[in-house]
Amino acid sequence: MSTRAHVLRWSAWSPHLEDRAAWESWAQAPAPLAAEGHPDAAFLPAMLRRRCTPLTRLVLTAAFGALADDEQPRVRTVFATRHGSINESIELLHQVVAGERLSPTKFSHTVHNAQAGLFCIAAGNRRASSSLAAGADTFACGWLEALAHLERDPATPVLFVTSDVPLDPTFAVLVKEPPGAYGLGLLLAREGTGPAFDLDLAGRSAPGAKPWPDAAEFLRFLLAGEPRLELGRFGWTRAA
Amino acid sequence: MMVARPPCRLAALGVVNALGGDAEAVWRGLLAGEPSRLSWNDALVPGRRLLVGAVSEPLPEIPAALARYGCRNNALALAALRQIEGPLREAIASRGAARVGVVLGTSTSGVADAEAAFRYQRANGGLDPAFDYAQLEFGGLAAFVAEWLGAGGPAYTLSTACSSGARALASARSLLAMGLCDAMVAGAADTLCGLTTNGFSALQAIGGGVTNPCSRNRSGLMLGEGAAMFLLTPEAGGIQLAGAGESSEAHHMSAPEPSGAGAEAAMRGALVDAGLAPEAIAYLNLHGTGTPLNDAMECQAVARVFGTALPVSSTKPLVGHTLGAAGALEAAFCWLMLERSADGALELPPHYWDGERDPALPDLHLASKGESVRPGAMLRVVTNSFGFGGNNCTLVLERQA
Questions:
Q1: What is the pLDDT of residues A168-226, one digit of tens each?
Q2: Does the beta-carbon distance from A104 to B202 stay under 8 Å?
Q3: Is B8 marked active-site?
Q4: Helix H or strand E segment including A77
Q5: Ordered DSSP codes for A103-118
Q6: Domains observed in chain A
Q7: Contact, B281 vs B309, CB < 8 A?
Q8: Which among B287, B299, B365, B393 is annotated as catalytic?
Q9: What contacts 24+ positions apart, CB below 8 Å, involve B62-68?
Q10: What pTM was estimated for this model as a whole?
């Protein structure tokens, strides 16, 4: 059974890296990502945009940037974020501890699949959708979950979006990870014209070896045309 | 032309919830069909007494080497895992640690313990030193289970609100089918906590007393907690995960699409995936939260797909709505039904309610106490899970010889 996926299209955003040309330059001379800033997401309806957290703007910018209009309702989706809406949950946790009443809207927008739900609503998408987290392996496991969707529905492309924003200082002191706010959208399919990659579990690289997030390292690998990438135990081999 | 899916055996099950701390207690409680294990809680929502499905058994201690994962949610997971520790260790030994993966679901992870850490912070000025971010981050559940077991394959946590646990089983099955893993731990755990009880209370989704699904008097859900953990292997026989169907609703962040189109798509998708006609199903476990909107849309969708003769029940009056764990727990209830069936007869968990039909809903066949069916063919059952953000997952389980 195949663990191959073609990258049909990609879209990425990080502060100061806001278009393809900027990422192509970055891939030639990669450096840590900036942590401050988020996209304006002007394509979203004003009502929705007003309520968007920085993470939601990153996710939706990366998601819609990787899709043609007619693809928006037709893809399956996988959203991988290590921290999700935890920064927003902190406010709610303080309110819970203080015995204050929660805002029902804020509560329903801090679930881990909040961005998935908002994407499906904005895109009119009724296909299967996963949201996940896997600590330092979040990027690789998101790719794997996208493969799992291709396994059960090989004919439907999967939009894989991975995104995170810097963790609130309350918890940031407890977590060691490269800095950066980013969103990466990859449109993956079993068949297609883009470069294809086979995933394996034979990776031997030290996790977190690079000073930028795994998602950015994958994009660098994609743009550099290199034959193999290892992130921890996960390996990607470019198909001939 | 449908290609037959590779087999996916649900080879072993550990389970804990309000009904009890092992499969036998849970099975007896399901058949008894009485919400006698629920408890009142004054501490979760200020000024409100809530009836909840809390786990009352003492939970195992997290081993000292894994102390950073020490939270109630992981203790619930461990309580379920220890029931199947033998088969899990055997899978590691026979298949190799690197070939065993973990896909779990949760909607709360260790947020109950984060609340305790914040309480400590209010009193002492800094977070409780016993708190670690690994307890709170969603990925922590799968990481804890993988480390406890020594499983070296991929480990991740799905969190799609109340469909998380069902979705974890569907994804674990795909990892086996891809040949990346030779055994999977899949399931879910969720914990009663202030965040979800206050959040659902703010959404006015929590009813009074025992939840009363499908009744004209239904007033909302009742929360619970628990865990169900399965060992999955790519083998035929036994009890199979025969199908999974998924859909999104593109409708609303916290309310289901009222026609039930999303629920219907998930059920039809699961039947197509399993290669089965609706008539092949002997029982359906409803999502059945007891909220006015869920039950209305779900009953319509079930009636459209299966008609009104199929026996169905909601088991949430017995254990509460365990949120992200519900999909795995209700798959566990289906598994227990199939595993304990004898001579082709399937004993059904009864639908506990006040018996007051809602004239606006299709007249579904709600299973009564002591009811059993004898489908005369392979035993197959279905379970529905529908989550916030419009995220639906339906599973088909089947007992092979």
A1: 999 999 999 999 999 999 999 999 999 999 999 999 998 778 999 999 999 999 999 99
A2: yes
A3: no
A4: strand A76-80
A5: PHHHHHTSSTTHHHHH
A6: 4-196+212-227 (3.40.47.10)
A7: no
A8: B287
A9: B62/B144, B63/B148, B66/B144, B66/B147, B66/B148, B67/B130, B68/B132, B68/B134, B68/B135
A10: 0.98
In terms of Cβ atoms closer than 10 Å to its own Cβ (0-12, 13-18, 19+), residue B209 is: middle
Interface of A with B in 170-229 (CB under 8 A): 170-171, 174-175, 199, 201
pLDDT tens over chain B, length 401 residues: 455 789 999 999 999 999 999 999 999 999 999 999 999 999 999 999 999 999 999 999 999 999 999 999 999 999 999 999 999 999 999 999 999 999 999 999 999 999 999 999 999 998 899 999 999 999 999 999 999 999 999 999 999 999 999 999 999 999 999 999 999 999 999 999 999 999 999 999 999 999 999 999 999 999 999 999 999 999 999 999 999 999 999 999 999 999 999 999 999 999 999 999 999 999 999 999 999 999 999 999 999 999 999 999 999 999 999 999 999 999 999 999 999 999 999 999 999 999 999 999 999 999 999 999 999 889 999 999 999 889 999 999 999 97
C-alpha A160/C-alpha A175 separation (Å) is 25
Give the DSSP H or E segment for A196: strand A196-200
Instruction: Kindly list the domain boundaries of chain B, sorted by start residue.
Output: 9-399
Q: How far is A28 from chain B (nearest CA, A)?
A: 31
Of B158, B167, B199, the CB nearest to A102: B199
Nearest CA in chain B to A172: B133
Q: Which residue of B has its CA nearest to A133?
A: B139
In three-state secondary structure terms, A13 is strand
* Angstrom distance (rounded) from CA B47 to CA B38: 19
Q: Token pair for residue B178? A: 């891809």
**Could you say which of 3.30.565.10, 3.40.47.10, 3.40.50.800, 3.40.50.1820 is the CATH number of the domain covering B9-399?**
3.40.47.10
Quick check: B98 and A93 CB within 8 A? no
In the stretch 87-146 of chain A, residues with CB closer than 8 A to chain B read 89, 92-99, 101-105, 107-109, 111-114, 116-118, 120-121, 123-135, 137-138, 140-141, 144-145
Residues 6+ apart with CB under 8 A from B349: B30, B31, B33, B285, B313, B315, B318, B333, B337, B367
Positions of E strands within B249-390:
283-285, 311-313, 346-347, 365-366, 372-373, 379-387
Q: Which helix (H) or strand (E) holds B92?
A: helix B85-95
* Interface pTM, i.e. ipTM: 0.98
CA distance B161 to chain A (A): 7
Question: Taking CB atoms and an 8 Å cutoff, what residues of chain A touch B123?
Answer: none
CB contact under 8 A, B122 and A97: yes
Q: pLDDT for A138-169, tens place per residue?
A: 999 999 999 999 999 999 999 999 999 999 99
Residues B162, B193, B334, B393: which is the catalytic one?
B162
Residue B215 tokens, joined: 């009744």
Q: Which of A97, A113, A147 sits opposite B391 (nearest CB)?
A: A113
- B390–A121 C-beta distance less than 8 A: yes
Amino acid symbol at B342: A
User: Do A130 and B158 count as a contact with CB atoms less than 8 A apart?
Assistant: yes
**Residues of B (130-169) whose Cβ lies below 8 Å from A:** 132-134, 136-140, 142-143, 152-161, 167
CB contact under 8 A, B246 and A129: yes
Q: Does A9 touch chain B (CB under 8 A)?
A: no
